[in-house]
Amino acid sequence: MENPTNKKWYNYFLSVDQPGESRGEPGVPSDAQQASATPRGAAQTVAEIASGVTSEPKFTGPVANPMSFDEIYGAAEINPPQHGYTILKIIELLHSEHIRNLSREVKRSSLLLALEASGVKAEEVVQDAVRRDKALDTYERLQQKALEDLEARKTKESQELQAEIERRINELQSRVQANNDEVAKGKEQFYGWQLKKQQEEQKIGDAVSYFTSEKPISTAGEASASPAPAAKKP
């Protein structure tokens, strides 16, 4: 998973200044620093808050529509707190017509004042963001694993189908070759018989020539010399 401190939006509310790194006049905290101060002090870093969310999300239900992040959050059992201030609520406020055109610092101050008025600590919102981010990262890994498994299964299936295709092709080619061999063998037998037939007819023709000058025996493809009987008149 990506290091939480590398995600810029984690820095939206909380100061990551180290102790002794003040802004403005020495000893006088800025308005933003005052607004962002927590019981543990402004020196608390985003990394410390993110590290407080140690448990990995567990998906206890199916996600029918992966394009619905609400379904993903619900399947990961990320429920909004009673005060309602989640990172999604903050996103909604940022896009509201009241502050969307203001400067970043004014937006930040406005959001912190809204959280303070509701008794919500800024780190609670960051923790909600971390939990949702972890849920998205975990779901991404699950989806990627499912995709890899699908690819592996389909690749194996395709290889088996290709092998079946090749086996079937070889089988059909063997049958075609067997047919061609059978026809060639039939022709060879027929031509061999035809040659012997001609030789037999020649011997018969030679023998019968001692008894008639006609050629009643057809040889070598000759038509029979025997005249057809004439039709009788009634």
Protein architecture, described:
With 234 residues, the chain is mainly α. It has helices at residues 31-36, 46-51, 69-75, 87-94, 104-117, 122-208. It has a domain at 4-160.
Class from helix and strand fractions: mainly alpha
Q: Give a quick account of the main beta sheet: strands, pairing sense, barrel closure.
A: none
How many β-strands, per DSSP?
0
Count every helix, treating DSSP H or I runs of 4 or more residues as helices.
Answer: 6
Could you tell me the mean pLDDT? 79
Radius of gyration: 48 Å
Shape: rod-shaped
Share of helical residues: 40-55%
Proportion of beta-strand residues: under 5%
| SSE sequence, one letter per element | HHHHHH
Q: Regions with pLDDT < 50 over 5+ consecutive residues?
A: 12-43, 223-232
Q: What distance lies between the first and last C-alpha atoms, to the nearest angstrom?
A: 115 Å
Summarize the structure.
The chain is an all-alpha fold. Helices cover 55% and strands 0% of the residues. The chain has six helices and no strands.
